[in-house]
Each structure stands twice: as C-alpha cells, then as structure tokens.
Amino acid sequence: ARPIRLSDYRPPDWLVDTVDLDIALHPTRTRVRSRLRLRPNPQAAGPAAVVLDGDDITPLSVRIDGVPMADSAYLATPDGLTIPQPPAGPFVLEIETEIDPSANTKLMGLYRSSGNYCTQCEAEGFRRITFFPDRPDVMAVYTTRIEADRDEAPVLLGNGNLIEQGDVPGTTRHFAVWHDPFPKPCYLFALVGGRLGARTATFTTMSGRTVALGVYVESGKEERAGYALEALERSMRWDEQAFGREYDLDVFNIVAVADFNMGAMENKGLNIFNDKYILASPETATDADYAHIEAVIAHEYFHNWTGNRITCRDWFQLCLKEGLTVFRDQEFSSDMRSRPVKRIADVRVLRGHQFVEDAGPLAHPVRPDTYREINNFYTATVYEKGAEVVRMLETLLGRERFRAGMDLYFTRHDGRAATVEEFVACFAEAAGTDLSQFMLWYAQAGTPELAVTRRDDAQAGTLSLEIAQVLPPTPGQPSKLPMVIPLALGLVGPDGDDLPIRRAGHGPVERGVLVLTRAAETFVLEGVPAGTVPSLNRGFSAPVKINADLTSDDLRFLAAHDSDPFNRWQAVQTLASELLIENVAVIRAGGAVRHDGGFVHALAAVLADERLAPAYVAQVLSIPSEGDIARDIGRDVDPEAIYLARQALRRALGNDLAPTLRILYERLRQDGPYSPDAASAGRRALRNVCLDLLAAPGHPAAIALAAAQYSEADNMTDRMAALATLALHDTPEREAALADFFERFRADPLVIDKWFALQAMIPDPGTLDRVRGLAAHPAFSLANPNRVRALIGSFAQANHTQFNRADGEGYRLVVDTVLALDGVNPQVAARLATAFRSWRALEPTRRAAARAGLERLAGTASLSRDVADIVERSLG
Ligand code: HT7
Ligand code: ZN
C-alpha cells in the first residue's frame, strides 16, 4: 500500500464525534472496549465503507448501535477492520480487543515500563490499542475509564480532567474516569497506570484559573522532579506573556518513564517523558541536562497550542507543529538564558544534524511530499529547519507583524487540523504581503549556498555586494527555484563600530535585512568608507551556507569587533575551519601541519575581553567538531586526517594559551553550592573548556588536574567534564576514573548512560572492543532505547574515527546492532541506521565498506518497514 503521497490526501469519509474507552489494565491481557460515535463526513465524496486502522490487534466483538455484528459483516486484516456496508447515517460502533502490554517491545501503543503501564500513540500507535481512523484530521472528544489492580497501579492518569474515581466493589481493583473536552486526534491519547510518586504545585493562569500540576516519577525519585516542575511553571507563564496563550484544563500532568522511543510526548493534559528529560539532581545531572530538561518541558507544554489545540491535517504537515514548537521553545530558552549563546548552540545543532541530512541521501523538504514510514520523518529537517523557517518569517515581517500572524493563526484555526498553507496565509494576511515564494522553503530540500563578492568604490563611498544563491540537487529534486532569503547585514566600519545600512537609490534597509529573491543580485550600499567589513547573515538570519570573499584579516577584524555576538563567534569558527581544512589536506599529503599564530592571537583577545560572558567565551573557544570539519570538506572525507588536524590545533591552543587558561581555570572556581542557573553554568562551561585545552597536549600536570577535578567535584557537570577530558588520554587515570564512576553510579541507569556514551566516543582503536564488551555488560539492554542510544548511538554518531574505521569493523558493529534491534524496536533500529547517511562523502576505502554494510542490511530478509526505508533511501 505504501508509499503515501501528499497529493493523494482526501478528507476522511467518516468523522468521530466522541470516543468512550473502557480499559481494564492487566500485565498480559488488557481489555479495551471502545465506543465510537461515527457520522458521515459532509465533505467526503459520498457513502463509503468504514475503514479503521489496526496493528497487531484482533477484534473480540463488534457491535453497531448495540447489536452484535456477524463475523462475516466486517473484515479484519493485519492492518485494520473494514465495515463494507455501514448504516447510512450516524451510528455507534463498539469494539472489544485484548492486548498484551508486557509483550510490546516496540514501545508504541500500550506498553509496560519498569512495571508501570504507559502509552505512546504518535504517530500511529493508537491503532495498536484499538481499531480507529488513525489520522490526525479525525478529532474527537474522549472519555476514558481506566481500571487496574489497586496494588499494581495505585495511580491512574488520563487525558483531560478527572471526573470520577473509586473502587470496583468486591475486587482488588479500582478505576478512574478522565474526560477531555477538547477534540483531539487519537495520536494525543494517553494513559498511565502504576506505582508513581509525584511533585505537585498549583498554577494560576492569566485569567485567574487554578491548574493542578503534577510531575510523576518512579517512587523514591520525587526529589529529582523539582527542576522539571519549576520549568513547567516558567513555561506556562512565558507562553502567556510571549504569545498570550493560556492553559485550558484543570490539570496538567507529566509522567517520566524509563523506556521511551524519543524525548517526550505532548499528549493532551498528560505529557509522557523519557525520564532522561525529567530527573535531575546536582550529583546526577549536568548543566546541559538541566538546560535540556527545561527546553523539552517547554516544548511539550507549548504543543498544547501549537499541535494540540491546532493540530496537523495529515503527517506531511508535521513541521506545522514541530518546527513551530521548536521555534517557540528556542525563544523561551533564549529568554530564560543567554540569547546569543542559545543561538550559537542551536546553530551548532542545525549544522551538525540538519545540514548533514540535507547534504546526503536522506535529504527531504521541511514538508515532505511522500513517505513510506512516517516515524522516519521526525528529523532535524522537520524540527530544526522547520523552526528556522518560522524564524525567517519573523525576520522578514518584524516582531509585531509576526505576532499578529500568530494571533490570527490561533483564532482562525483553534480546534482544527491545519496545513502549512493555512499557517503561512495567516502571516501573509496579517502583514499584507505575498509569501508565495517563501513557500519554497517548505517544498525544496537542500541547504542554499550563497556566494558573496564585494566591490568597493572608495571614491563613491559605496560597497557592492554581489550575491548568487544556489540550491544543490537533492533526491527527487534535480533543479530548484531561487528562494526568499532574509540576510541580516552589518557593516563594521574601520574603527570597529557599526555603520548605518543604506541602499543606493532605496534608502535605509529595514532592520538591516537584505531580502534576496533572485538567483543573482547586487546590493549597492552607500556611505561606506574604505576598510569597512560586511558582517553577513547576522544572528544566522537564514539557514544557508555562505561563501564570502572575506580575508583572514577581515575575519580577525570581525572576531575582534563585530557587535553581533553570533557573527563574532562565527568569524572565529570560520578562521578555525579554514585552518583545519588546510591542515587536513597537508596531513593527507604527508606534510607538517601549519601553526597559525594569528588564530591563537584572535582567541587570546576573546579570552582577555572581560565584558564577554563566560558561557559565550566557552562557545568561542570550542573549535569546530570533527563532524563540522567533515561537513565543510564535503567529499572524499578522511576522518583520521580530520581527527589529527583537530588534535594538532587543540594541542597548539593548549600550549600557546596555557598561562591564560590556567589563570581562568582558577578564577572560575565555584565559590558556593552548585546551582544550575545559566550564569553559574556558563562559568563551569568556560572552566571546563579551559581544563580540556590545558590537557590537550597531554602534560602530566594537566592530566593530574583533571583527575583531581574528577574526584573532588560536588556536581555531575564538573565530574563529567573531567572524565571526558581524561577519556581522551590513554592513561591509568582514565581507567581509574571510569572504574570509580561505575561504582559510584551503578544503581542509576541514566548516569550509567553517560558512562556508556563517554567510552563509546573514545577516539582510540581499542574502542571497538570496548564497545563490544560493554554491549554484553549487565547494565546494557537492547530493550531500552536510552541504553542503545548511549552506547551504540554515541559510537555511530559521535566517534568519527572509530565508527569509520578503514577496516569497516565499526560499520559491522553498527549493522549487527541494527539487525539485532530490528526485531525488538524497529523505530530505534531505523534511527541507528541513519548513522550511514553520509557514506557517499567518505574517501573510497571507507565508502566501499560503508556501502557493504548498507547492502548487508538491504539483503536481510524480513527487515522492518522502518529500517528498510532508511536503507533503501540511503543506497538510492
Ligand atoms: N511529538 C512527539 C514526537 C514523537 C514521539 C515521541 C515519543 C515516542 C515516539 C514518538 N513519535 C513521534 C515529540 C515531540 O516532538 O514533541
Ligand atoms: Zn514536538
């Protein structure tokens, strides 16, 4: 039946007004009774069969308007249930099924995690619970009765508000009835039953309503749920202030579970989270963990409006909720923390994941137009590039008109399932502007490349910028049209100050944003003295690659003076990247790497600038990753040479900057108890970058410093940073610290994940055997996605030299794991298989080995649809 195409979209034949579920939980025989009020869709073509989706379930009984149906009156298949001749008008359909949550290793539908019951229905999990038109444009009002053994599941949670609860007379069982008055698609359905402890609070909304908040965790871990609860309160307040969005139910619950396919899920009134994004204490969570928790809590909460109240018409519109909600959570984190540092971090993620995706065989538009397996489209392109597209709308329209567009979207589409066209139309209308060319951002895959050429006319006092845009071909899209690109520009005058931006013949450039619309165009800027340096794409106003004719002197000038913190950081990154790429070539040719005193000097100047926040300086000091360098090189990639070039630069920085780094390291020492706030985290970040660079040359004194920090740390950030530094040096201190870490935290699987991940990332040839050994460790389990991602995911995605071993053994390990995992959890197996997405960019030996790995997967009988889809597209 697959592939599914956007162009084939048809409105549903039948609508569901209400869903009444009665779910009696049992470890292996959970009984599900569903009662659907169906009516023909007036928008559909005419009388039609009722076709319900199902996956791995069989009907025990089917009734129409209370009358049992003969088995011959409906057709049950592995994919669902069809009633060929339903009543002509509205009717009530009742279906009974029985499911086995304990046998559910796919973690989609109803399953058990640490003995607790929980659900995951996005994208197509509800059909594993009961038969239903499992598509987001069928929105219904749900009432759910949950029944369970009181001992086994004292806590019973559902969507909406709790309307009834009690004991089942004469039994050990009890029940709870939840009613959600807001129509929703079935992917937002959820229930939880188990032995859970909670942290609770109340929140008073902007209109004065009281909402009961609860964060439920494994009993005994309530202490670690406090930060998540506070983050939830901050998110709720922020959405009122920034977007005027108020929460709408009497209750908002969050539940943390240990076995979860992704980060978290925005089920209406009952978010379910991977416990990794809830549980935090200074001893067990790093500053980065705290920041992620805050961001994910916010993201899922913000879905209440962008995703739940207004949902997607179909899964092709996924970016409508995900891109927009990522944009909203990024804005929230920027307001809670440092805006420039958040922007830099987000762009690092975008380039590290989305640009890589865009450059390989898995590239797809922000709104794909075809898919075989929707679970494979929860990608960096849909999420991160989707957020950039929303950000560009704001940049193009300005804050006020953008907000007016959002307001219109909220009022016009509340309670509906919408499309990208309808979303963009709100901005076009609110701003009185034509956004038809802008729609190409949703339709065309690939990262635009801008070539920028400067022409100075000293006499006329003008600077001309000739800008050409090219969008490279991507799978299924050999040629492209020019895009609308908002390019925020600065002109840094010879004295280092910003100059006004005026276009000859046009006057001042609104908000300093040049709007590119053609394949090639020239912007003549006036009032520009000689020695002015353009600062292009300030704040990363568009998700593009820029190839500008800026010299190293220009970049050093920007690194010292640019008033735009993003571009100041970018200038240093570009300088580093150019040096590293040059040295990679030198290494491959057997030569000696070039030491660049100018680059060291530029970094020293940033280090010496006391006006800069430590968190920002930490970002400047973090040179491009191996992945960044590989991506910038783009073809014939040799990961070993990249590693060596990067190591050489890190050593040079560690040696040349040692005195300054050492002074900073001491000055930034923590002077009170640990606090996860952004300023304290920034100081730790910079201190730990200093430590890592100091240790890079491998001097025993620096290794001892790291070992001392490891054992003296009173928080996980400092302990983990020291361990990560030690992990890069093959010393007795490394093995001692790793052994100590395991003993300290062996009872805490989330912390042991850090231990798995760190070892998987060690760039030594011995890592392959180490990872094989760890995969057999009692703390490892293929059944738990966090364990798999920590050990095998980190090896495949973050250990460039060892995953890409020239002998192909790294690929073999990952292929073996994908195959073993596919029968357990195909969604997670498919995600792991995407590690091969850049195989074509490798040098010939590794390319051949990676291809052989993919072909081994392709040649395996009975691959899941999830893995088969990734493998076929990767080879395609
Ligand atoms: N909307 C959710 C995406 C999702 C998911 C979450 C958990 C398990 C499986 C899932 N499939 C899709 C999470 C989000 O982006 O907010
Ligand atoms: Zn989301």
Description:
With 876 residues, this protein is an alpha+beta fold. The strands form eight sheets. Strands 6-5-9-3-2-12-15-14 form an eight-stranded mixed beta sheet, with no helix packed on it. 41% of the residues lie in helices and 21% in strands. The model has no long low-confidence stretch (mean pLDDT 98). Helix 24 runs antiparallel to helix 25 (826-833). The radius of gyration is 28 Å and the shape is globular. Among the domains are: 4-194, Sandwich (Immunoglobulin-like); 311-443, Neutral Protease, domain 2 (Orthogonal Bundle), CATH 1.10.390; 449-538, Aminopeptidase N, middle-beta domain (Immunoglobulin-like, Sandwich); 746-876, Zincin-like fold (Alpha Horseshoe), CATH 1.25.50.10. It has 27 helices and 33 strands. Bound molecules: (3S)-3-amino-4-(1H-indol-3-yl)butanoic acid (HT7) and zinc ion. Residues 299, 303, 322, 325 line the site of zinc ion.
Question: Descriptors for this entry?
Answer:
Aminopeptidase N; globular; six-stranded mixed sheet; Immunoglobulin-like; binds (3S)-3-amino-4-(1H-indol-3-yl)butanoic acid; 27 helices; alpha+beta; Neutral Protease, domain 2; 876 residues; eight-stranded mixed sheet; binds zinc ion
